[in-house]
Amino acid sequence: MVSKITLYWLLLIVAIVVLWHDWRGIKGRNTALAYSAMYAISLVISFIVVYDRRFPGPVLVLNKLFEHLNRLLFR
Amino acid sequence: MHKVNMSSFQLYVLLFITMNGTGLLTAPGLLARMAGASSWMAPFLAMPVGLVAIWLAVKLNRQFPEDNLVGIAEKVAGPVAGRALSLLYLFYMLSSTGFVLRQFSDFLTNSFLMRTPGTVVSACLLLVGGYAVKQGPELLGRLGTMFLPIFISLSLLVCLPMLWNAHIRYALPLGSAGWESVLSGAYALQLWFPMMTFASFYLPYVGDKRKALAGGIWMVVVNTIWFACTNLFALVVLGPAASGFNYPIMTIVRQVQLSEFVEHIDALVMMGWVLAFFVRIVVCLFGAAVGTARWLGLPNYRPLVYPLAWLLVIVSQWGLRNTQYIPNSTGALCMFYLANAIALPSVLLLLSLLRRVNDRSGETTPAGPS
What we know:
Chain A is 80% helix and 0% strand. Chain A is mostly helical. In chain A, helix 1 packs antiparallel against helix 2. With 370 residues, chain B is mainly α. Chain B is globular. In chain B, helix 3 (69-77) packs across helix 13 and helix 5 (118-134) crosses helix 10. Chain B has one domain: Up-down Bundle (Amino acid/polyamine transporter I), CATH 1.20.1740.10. Classes of the chains: A mainly alpha (75), B mainly alpha (370). Chains A and B meet through helix 1, helix 2 and helix 3 of A and helix 4, helix 11 and helix 13 of B.
């Protein structure tokens, strides 16, 4: 089993490589801003998910929203 | 004006593989659990949703030929409400594809690459997929037509040798599980049929738009027949045991022997599945990238491809212990998919028609006496 510290390092290395590859092709301030924001969000969430995979995510939201209907139709 | 990059045939080939990649893998088991011996009838009851979805996508495109669903929402519902609605649709695209990506990685790591982490499998697929998406819709269209013969011939390679082991009595009597079960099965198929609205992100690049609706209807019909045949095949070969497998077709593939000296063709069939999953994920990644770029008002979608791919890998892992979640929450997911892929475009179409009627009545109103 790989430790969390190793996974964090791995994530950082991959993030830097992808950033280095993509950044050269980005033109315009707005595009750079949008790219950075999306990239930062993805990176932060991936750090959280590595810390705890069961961290509440979109699945939980969907289940909470539609669980009554689900019970009605499929149980 | 968009440069014409693909034909409607190429678009529908892409959507056909998109639906059948995952449909062939998980639908037979899911439907057998829900509708038993009548599972093969469920696709015919689910078909109208697919027809409505493609009709909505084409109708909206006829009104706004240069725009995708995100842009149309902004034009029709205004900048604030339109962006809120299209954000929901983008979330639907990302979450549904995230689940598919998880299915793919779980399937591969459970069946073949047992010592490889699922995240690595997903990331590798998206690395290549992201590159393909960056090349544009023309390449995606060609990929679809290139993969289709491989996909169909591999499917036939599985089916034909096993037809001798089929027992039609397993599928009889018709409706034995009760029509309620068949309806439940048809509802479960809404995991697949609503994704016809993904066409909205490709139609601005399609050249022969006049054929788009007829082609779409044909594709939904062919898809339905394909789904029904797949379910019937799993049922007549495995019988009631089909409901006990998560991937019944894969179970059948493992038993295939050709002339008693060719065995283990499951590796070959897996190749077809990887291609189909690849198309499914790439089709959605392109839609999500184009939609997000439109949502943010960016001139080019290409820089957003890898951040979105990264987000997809996260969604495929976030809060999901395993893919057993998906059968357990079919009802919730179907409702979410129907709300986003059918209700949302319907509202947009209604609003655009109302606006048009309003504009016409405004134009024809005679000017008052001056």
